[in-house]
TrEMBL record:
InterPro entries: ABC3_permease_C (IPR003838), Macrolide_Exporter_MacB (IPR050250). It comes from Streptomyces liliiviolaceus. PANTHER family: ABC TRANSPORTER PERMEASE YTRF, MEMBRANE COMPONENT OF TRANSPORTER-RELATED. One of its GO terms (molecular function) is transmembrane transporter activity. GO terms for cellular component: plasma membrane. Residues 64-176, 315-428 form the ABC3 transporter permease C-terminal domain. This is ABC transporter permease. Keywords: Cell membrane, Membrane, Transmembrane, Transmembrane helix. Its main location: membrane. It is a multi-pass membrane protein. It is found in: Cell membrane.
Amino acid sequence: MFTLAMRSVRQRPGRFAATLLSAFLGAAIIMTFNSMHDTAGAPGVDSVSSETLSTAAGVVGGYGTLLVFFAVASTLTVNVRQRSAEIDLLRCSGATPAQLKRMVVGEAVAVALLGALLAIGPAMLGGRVLLDVFQDSGQVAESVDYTFGPIALYSGLDITVLAAAGAAFLAVRRATGGGRRSRGRGRKLLVRGSLALGGLSIGTTFALSSTDAALMAPPAYGAILLSVGLALLSPGLLRALLGRLPLRGPSGYPAVHGLRARAAQLSGVMVPLIVFIGMATATLYMQSAENDAIDAAGVPKSVDAKNLETLNLTVVGIIVVFSCIMLVNSLYAATTYRRKEFGQQRLAGATPGQVLGMVGIESLVLTVTGVVLGTGGALAGIVAFTTVRTDSVLPDQGLGIWLGVVAVAVAVTMGTSLVTAWRVLRVPAIDAVALAA
């Protein structure tokens, strides 16, 4: 089966493009920031510079690990689902579930390893740029030289490959009919754990003082955990919403019907969308409130305050880029997979405009759901932070930051879905159905 996996990767590399891109970007992020550990441990680095670099590597490296797993898991899940006919044929030909698992996991490991190896060069360049940012802000001494060592290299390779292997195993296990009962229990445990830990983390904020250096950490982590929990709940919430939408017509009815039928499969889209909105909104608002509080106090920013601001803005930048790429990957793969469905609708009498209208309505419903849930997770952390830090319930920044985050989410979700659907619709309906058969 491993030989079959390698042959499949060589013969149809386009099938694994989304997974390769996710592995490449994830490994690049992990190696970029973990190279700060190598740089901090080099001879002659002063203690202040070493602490700054190690903090950046520890905080963002942890985020990077989670993002890699979610990105690779979402793309692999879509990939395996699109190959359901091929997997069924192999099972009918005598392949056992264990052999299929070895084949799919082997493919995932090979693609992830290739992506991680390709990421080494960009990660070295990104690490140098990141070090320059710290040096330009005065947080790291100019005499510190960049080092890309074993911590960066092995962490990038190991985490990416392990994430791909684990995600592929879970995806093919579901596709071959195993673990359906445990999957439901596992999802419930994850949801309850995320929401409980998120609420506990946010509650911890009120036990700290307004000048505590770690004040931003509990509400930020709480907002992240709540966003993850809400993202995992999103399929069920989406079904409940769809039951109340009064959409009719040649585009509205099939949009609602299709979303209801595919609600469980849309987690690959909803998770990055909700986590992006929740994390970006919470971090940007809390950092803005912190800056205003420091300015109002009339004191210069300390090194710790500068480190925190740099980390927060860096984290948001990573979240924006990586989450957008996860969304684009998931939406592109999911929309392309519907080529046969679109062709059948057109053969049944639907016009290309009506099919595009259906896709637009679906994207709008997904976006609104993601914005509501992501904003809810972010708002819990923001209110806790501003209440303790400024004695106000809400920050003074208004809706500007939130509107900017929502605009990015809308542009990515709607743009990717509609452009991909438009490209799919350029194929004649008969050819689309025949090619997908």
